[in-house]
Amino acid sequence: MLPDIERAIRLQSLDDRTAVLTKEIAALPKHTAEIEKKLEAHNRRLEADRAALIANQKQRKTLESDIQMQDQKISKLKAQMMEAKTNEVYRAFQHEIDFCQKEIRRFEDRILELMTESEPLEKNVKAAEASLAQEKKQVEAEKAQARERTAADQKEIAALNEERTGIVRQMDPRIASEYERIRKGRGGVAIAEAVNGRCSKCNMTLRQQFLQELKRGDSIMVCESCKRILYINPPQSFDDLVPESARA
User: Fold this and answer.
1) Burial 18-45 (b: 16+ CB within 10 A, else e)
2) Which end of the chain is more exposed for a tag (fewer CB within 10 A), N or C?
């Protein structure tokens, strides 16, 4: 195998790994944004429950204040009723007192309803607060892991690029340039192995004459279909030359 073919194979390996790491680095911020978005949604639900609970408590306080006002009004009416000169005036005061007492009962009933409604709201708020606190810790841990992973990936990419630069320096500039041109035009894959008479990337069958020339390995050849640089790995031992079904 030509030395530049071996170098191109190594370049492809480095480029493939770099592509994986680059994709991972790009995905990490998206993952972080997704978990933060989920956290924000949970926080909004918690705020909604808190607002509902506060509104409930505020309404109860208003009703308690209304009851106090009615009680004060009843006290005044009773005092005035004692000074009534006629039965008609007395009954009028009594009618107002009855109305105030009816309002108090109505307010008390509503307070009981609000207290019943507040119980699940309080439980929801407490549970959501505990869950959100735990989720925030988890999110911060995942963000820290993402930062560490990004730093590790960037460090590895730097090492890969350094090795890549050294390999390119050793290659024939024309072959290195051709490798780059093909890689950019073929989805990042510039070189392919010929396996069982086919290009392993486009799966097209290679002509017998072309395949024989490729096996000689004395020149750079490209697939006639996908135009990628082709290489073939020759058998390394006698066992490799003999089909498995024929081995004793």
Assistant:
1) beebeeebeebeeebeeeeeebeeeeee
2) C
